[in-house]
C-alpha cells in the first residue's frame, strides 16, 4: 500500500465532532458546570441545542440586589457542592445568563431565594418580566422572598411558580402593611405545605382559617392573642 493510499484510508476512518452520537454529547454536557455550559452555547448552533436540552447542573438560585446597582446571581448544587457566583455591576450579563437558565425546560429548583436591599423595584420587575416571558411556570420546591418587594410584586413572583411543586414559602414584609388576603386566593398558597411569615401585620382572628392546610407554620408578627393561638390549635385537630 502506498503512502498516499494509507492517508486516504486514514481520512475515511477519522471521526469528526459531528460523528459523535447525541446521547454521548448530552452526557458530557450535563457533567459541566453552568458557566461552561453557557460558553458552549456560543460555540455553535448544534452545541447550543444540546445545552438547551440538557438538565442544568444546579438546583438552587439566590438573586440578590444591593443598592439598585450591584446584582448577584448565585447558583448552587446540593449534591455536587458546587457554586457559581456572578458579582459586579454588569447587570445585563446576569440577566442574560439567568434567561438561559430559566428557559431550560428541564430546570428543577429546590430553592429560590430573592433578596433585595435596595429601595426601588426596577430590578425586581426586570426578573419578573423575564419569568413571565417563559412558556411555562417554574418548578420550585422552596421560595423565599426576603426583600423590599411591594404587595403586587410578591403576588407576581408567586404566580410564576408552578403550584403543585411549591412546598415551602417564606415571606418577609419589613415595615409594610400587606393585604395578605390576596395571597390566600392563590393556588400556590393553597397547595403549599409549609409557610414562614416574618414581620407581618396580620389580624389572625380573621385570617387563621387560611392556614389550616399547612403542616408547619412559623409566624413572627407584632402581636398574636391567646384566643388566636387557641383557635389555630383547635383547627389543627
TrEMBL record:
Database matches in InterPro entries: DUF38/FTH_CAE_spp, F-box-like_dom_sf, F-box_dom, FB224
Domain F-box: 14-65
SUPFAM superfamilies, per the entry: F-box domain
Domain of life: Eukaryota
Gene Ontology biological process: innate immune response
Record-given protein name: F-box domain-containing protein
Organism per entry: Caenorhabditis tropicalis
Amino acid at each position: 500500500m502506498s503512502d498516499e493510499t494509507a492517508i486516504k484510508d486514514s481520512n475515511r476512518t477519522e471521526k469528526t465532532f459531528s460523528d459523535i452520537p447525541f446521547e454521548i454529547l448530552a452526557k458530557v454536557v450535563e457533567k459541566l458546570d453552568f458557566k461552561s455550559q453557557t460558553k458552549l452555547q456560543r460555540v455553535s448552533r448544534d452545541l447550543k441545542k444540546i445545552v438547551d436540552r440538557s438538565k442544568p447542573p444546579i438546583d438552587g438560585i439566590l438573586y440578590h440586589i444591593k443598592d439598585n446597582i450591584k446584582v448577584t446571581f448565585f447558583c448552587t448544587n446540593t449534591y455536587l457542592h458546587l457554586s457559581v457566583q456572578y458579582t459586579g455591576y454588569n447587570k445585563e450579563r446576569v440577566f442574560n445568563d439567568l434567561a438561559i437558565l430559566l428557559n431550560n425546560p428541564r430546570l428543577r429548583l429546590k430553592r429560590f431565594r430573592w433578596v433585595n436591599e435596595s429601595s426601588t423595584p426596577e430590578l425586581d420587575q426586570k426578573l419578573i418580566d423575564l419569568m413571565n416571558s417563559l412558556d411555562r411556570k417554574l418548578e420550585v420546591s422552596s421560595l423565599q422572598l426576603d426583600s423590599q418587594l411591594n404587595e403586587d410584586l410578591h403576588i407576581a413572583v408567586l404566580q410564576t411558580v408552578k403550584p403543585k411543586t411549591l412546598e415551602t414559602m417564606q415571606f418577609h414584609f419589613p415595615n409594610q402593611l400587606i393585604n395578605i388576603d390576596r395571597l390566600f386566593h392563590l393556588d400556590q398558597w393553597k397547595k403549599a405545605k409549609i409557610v414562614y411569615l416574618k414581620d407581618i401585620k396580620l389580624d389572625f382572628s380573621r385570617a387563621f382559617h387560611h392556614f389550616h392546610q399547612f403542616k408547619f407554620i412559623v409566624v413572627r408578627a407584632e402581636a398574636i392573642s391567646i384566643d388566636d393561638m387557641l383557635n389555630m390549635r383547635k383547627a389543627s385537630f
